[in-house]
Amino acid sequence: MTSPTTAQLRKTALNAAHRRLGAKMVNFGGWDMPVEYSGILAEHLATRTAAGLFDVSHMGEIEVRGERALDLVQHVACNDAARLVVGQAHYSGLMTEQGTFVDDLLVHKISGTHYFLCVNAGNQDQDFEHIRAHNQAGAQIENSGERYSQLAIQGPKASGILQRFTNVPLDPVKYYHFTFGAVDGVDCLIARSGYTGEDGFVIYFAPEHS
User: Fold this and answer.
1) What is the pLDDT of residues 3-20, one digit of tens each?
2) For 52-109, what is each residue's pLDDT tens digit?
3) Domain limits, the chain
């Protein structure tokens, strides 16, 4: 099977900016994504010693709402979402009936009737269909990835850099917790999470503001 052409690949709202700035673009899970700018080693060191900024808008978002939203999340994911408090997130696994993985994901508790799931880029549609197929709770499920862009700023200086662009106090936001507020005038979900192992934030916002 041949791989999709660049014209067939999905693009984030920042795709033209990446190309204009000279990023090395690759097919990543069906998305035309920047794999590096100045080089992997330089960018690795920047993230470990200062901060790196990543366009992760290819990631998927699925929202579960309703009085039995928790029941559905508990049924399809392995980590105990009942332990989450409002404003907290955790890492979990989307599971089959046999106990094998469909995908890994982050579960954010917006409220007792609203859970925000961040899933992997190439799996969003299949994850949504898996959750919908197991929705015996009758919860409301939205495949909402088209409504979000994501930027991740990661590294020991990430908090200080991001704080310059928002009036939301970032220091009180604990690891794997989140809040809402404006970043550079744009309404965002601001989560203190990420996959680099460094301190940092992931911000979710409408793509037209990218």
Assistant:
1) 555 568 999 999 999 999
2) 999 999 999 999 999 999 999 999 999 999 999 999 999 999 999 999 999 999 999 9
3) 1-37, 50-57+148-209, 60-145
Pairwise CA distance, residues 204 & 210, whole Å: 10
> Across residues 111-133, what is the average pLDDT?
95
The domain 60-145 belongs to what CATH superfamily?
Aminomethyltransferase beta-barrel domains (3.30.70.1400)
Secondary structure string (H, E, C) spanning the chain: CCCCCCCCCECCCCHHHHHHCCCEEEEECCEEEEEECCCHHHHHHHHHHCCEEEECCCCEEEEEECCCHHHHHHHHECCCHHHCCCCEEEEEEEECCCCCEEEEEEEEEEECCEEEEEECHHHHHHHHHHHHHCCCCCCEEEECHHHCEEEEEECCCHHHHHHCCECCCCCCCCCCEEEEEEECCEEEEEECCCCCCCCEEEEEECHHHC
pLDDT at 2 over 70: no
Average pLDDT for residues 149-165, to the nearest whole number?
98
Q: Are 84 and 176 in contact (CB under 8 A)?
A: no
- 28's CB contacts (< 8 A; 6+ apart) are 35, 58, 121
Average pLDDT over residues 187-200: 96
Query: Under CATH, which architecture does the 50-57+148-209 domain have?
Result: 2-Layer Sandwich (3.30)
* Residues contacting 21, CB < 8 A, separation 6+: 37
